[in-house]
Design brief:
Layout: E1 10-14, H1 18-29, E2 34-38, E3 41-45, E4 56-61, E5 75-77, H2 82-89, E6 95-104, E7 108-114, E8 120-125
Parallel strand pairs: 1-4, 5-8
Antiparallel strand pairs: 2-3, 3-4, 6-7, 7-8
Helix pairs in contact: 1-2
């Protein structure tokens, strides 16, 4: 891998109900997600500046995407403060799997949650 490239360029969070999953993530992050159907998949995209060189992705409902609490973990950006996102998770239909924990002064904080679809997802922020 070229040292100037990102190690992550795209991610998909599996969903069994794209509308429920979209509502969950829109609520906890105060965002609007655009939806699209392609290749037999229903997708909802996290806001991103395409072509910026930053990683982006979304939610995906298809026969190939199965929600899980096992396997790889992605960390979503909860800056400027993790608490703002954590406080919304249960009300939006998810639950906290690992509470906010300090990694270090330099790196910040992390937490795990289970989303509305049953996926284990992580959060990271400096505060």
């Amino acid at each position: 891998m070229d040292a100037t490239t990102n190690s992550l360029n795209w991610f998909e969070i599996p969903a069994t109900d794209i509308n429920r999953a979209k509502t969950f993530y829109e609520n906890i992050f105060d965002i609007t997600m655009e939806t699209q159907e392609m290749m037999g998949m229903k997708m909802a995209f996290f806001p991103a500046e395409m072509g910026s060189g930053k990683a982006y992705g979304g939610l995906c409902e298809s026969p190939y995407h199965k929600p899980s609490q096992d396997g790889s973990i992605i960390y979503l950006n909860a800056n400027p403060n993790l608490d703002t996102v954590i406080e919304k998770i249960e009300g939006a239909g998810g639950h906290i799997a690992m509470p906010k924990m300090k990694i270090s002064d330099d790196i910040g904080y992390m937490a795990f949650f289970i989303d509305s679809e049953g996926n284990r997802v992580a959060l990271h922020s400096q505060n």
